[in-house]
Specification:
Length: about 375
């Protein structure tokens, strides 16, 4: 089969690899579509994991083989009612729900969760940028059937929507609360809509004017350029920073009122040098640039220093959220498949499998008209 193999930093190659062999109670899924996710881009551009790997974890496709089952009974009981020919959305991380971290609802820290249960070959890494993937038994509870009226692409959006709903649930919101969503890319727009559904009044910001119109469509009460935010001086109860900008965090901390919360969603790259590719100096430079773009926050010489007294005296919470919450999966499926959160408007580009590198490049450097990018593994 054809697969796009990660061979090193910024090196994705279309190769011919064996169709994965499956064992008992495993699935072979013919991939239809796979979303391009920022976390994959980070791995490809910064080489944070060793090659070779086949990335892509926002995967939807058709079950074409079920391993080692001898009867219909076994099919029903062991494989969560999944059948040959079912159109499904896959979930590559499933927590144990039992360990110390899971009991604290910090699923992304669970050892079982950290294992990747879907592969197209090599070290399991999702495998969605390939024609077929093998789905291991421990992630079967995460497989969701896609209703006939919904597309594969809608199914592939369950994973990113899940990460956003999980983050929204970390906020302590009352109906009518004012919430800033900084950044209106696909993730920010999902925040805008899910927060609106939760009863919040959303103030949306972005650097691109084209995205502000969309933000209003997705339920923002107000949408302004990021540079205008400081002059508005809004009264905020919470802020979601959906861009990897330290300056935006400083600004959000200043803008939320006492008792408010600031949630970090896009700070997924550690500050320490990542295998020599990012230095603290580069990070500081980026911070200064961001601060200038936002036209605001005062920053110390050393770069990122927080005024901890605002957290203590003003009782502001600074919280992070990473990855998905498996226990929300049924609710996420309802939101997406009912189109209360209509993800179809978020998908702007489809690339054939052979052009995965182009898809990743566009997702990494979005254009005014680009949002969520999908790779089509089907006929191309
Ligand atoms: Zn993802
Ligand atoms: Zn666990």
């Amino acid at each position: 089969m054809r697969a796009v193999v990660y061979r090193g930093v910024n090196d994705l190659r279309l190769e011919t690899v064996p169709v994965p062999r499956i064992g008992a109670h495993e699935l072979l899924v013919k991939v239809a579509v796979c979303g391009v996710c920022p976390t994959d881009i980070k791995k490809i551009q910064y080489g944070t994991v060793p090659p070779p790997r086949i990335f892509g974890h926002e995967t939807a496709g058709t079950i074409v083989k079920i391993g080692g089952t001898t009867s219909n009974f076994e099919l029903r009981t062991s494989n969560f009612g999944l059948r040959l020919g079912d159109r499904v959305a896959l979930h590559h991380h499933v927590p144990c729900l039992d360990c110390h971290f899971c009991r604290h609802h910090a699923f992304a820290q669970c050892a079982t969760y950290k294992r990747t249960g879907i592969t197209a070959g090599f070290e399991p890494a999702g495998g969605g940028y390939a024609e077929y993937v093998r789905v291991m038994p421990f992630v079967l509870p995460g497989v969701v059937k896609i209703p006939a009226k919904n597309s594969f692409a809608e199914g592939a959006m369950l994973e990113p929507v899940n990460t956003v709903l999980k983050a929204v649930r970390r906020l302590n919101l009352l109906r009518g609360d004012a919430v800033l969503v900084a950044g209106q890319g696909p993730i920010g727009l999902m925040f805008t809509r899910l927060l609106q559904l939760a009863g919040a009044r959303v103030l949306a910001t972005d650097l691109l004017a084209s995205r502000l119109r969309l933000a209003r469509k997705f339920g923002a009460k107000r949408a302004v350029l990021a540079s205008q935010l400081s002059t508005l001086n809004p009264q905020l109860d919470a802020a979601v920073v959906a861009v990897p900008s330290d300056a935006a965090v400083h600004q959000a901390l200043q803008l939320v009122r006492g008792g408010g919360q600031v949630l970090l969603f896009a700070h997924t790259r550690r500050c320490a040098p990542v295998e020599g590719r990012e230095t603290r100096a580069e990070r500081r430079k980026a911070l200064t640039l961001d601060a200038r773009r936002l036209g605001a926050p005062k920053l110390s010489e050393g770069g990122s220093t927080l005024d901890f007294s605002s957290i203590c005296l003003d009782e502001k919470d600074l919280i992070g959220s990473y990855s998905s919450d498996f226990t929300l999966q049924a609710e996420v499926a309802r939101l997406v498949f009912s189109r209360r959160l209509d993800v179809r408007q978020l998908i702007t580009h489809y690339f054939p499998l052979a052009e995965t590198a182009k898809a990743v490049a566009l997702a990494a450097q979005p254009k005014p008209d680009s949002l969520k990018i999908m790779v089509l593994a089907g006929n191309d």
